[in-house]
């Protein structure tokens, strides 16, 4: 909150503090947390990362779409025209449950496809807009291999270990860790200033070891471009690659909050009283 208020002019209320130094080295702060990228079926990885706009433009540029006078807006499920009006482009109908959380059921008219029949008659490389949205990131990367603007954004999703999610996957079905990595992907696709402070809270949650390595490559790439990356993490495979570690303790929650030790991984491994250092020492000795 302190850095966000100073750099991004955010309307935040930081906790009391004495002083903070070094903010003059940054032009912005990016807090990549695990909150949802959206709370309705309209939000998905394609819309959040900006992939959906160039995809809609491709469909609007096909000969059949042009002959019908269809614009990119025709292929949006957020506006009238090409969407299914029975579900307003959601693909699902919300059913309010008294005393229980609301549930969503598939739309009987479009069968979950979000669009009306006329829109689904348009094909790009043999696929409808619905079929493209149902592709996984890995499948879409191969499908759009010849479209640089789309390929670049898809590659960042691959880099953060999200090859398996679908482009149009409902945001409410993404885990906190997945939502966080979608946000990281969007930041990676932006122009890098080299003066950004990135803050991530446990980004390896739910990741396979192979994907952790991919994520580390991404974080190191940000670091190598001159940015500062602050990661709150318990995964020792991540901790051991840090340039500088601050070990908080002695326990968790309200029994912690004190700086037990700080330094490079090698220095922390020699620090007395550091639980992290004790396990780090074993890992570094391998």
TrEMBL record:
It comes from the Bacteria. It is found in: Cytoplasm. Keywords: ATP-binding, Cytoplasm, DNA damage, DNA excision, DNA repair, DNA-binding, Excision nuclease, Metal-binding, Nucleotide-binding, Repeat, Zinc, Zinc-finger. The keyword Kinase does not apply. GO terms for biological process: DNA repair. The keyword Electron transport does not apply. Pfam families: ABC_tran. One of its GO terms (molecular function) is ATP binding. It comes from Candidatus Thiodiazotropha taylori. This is UvrABC system protein A.
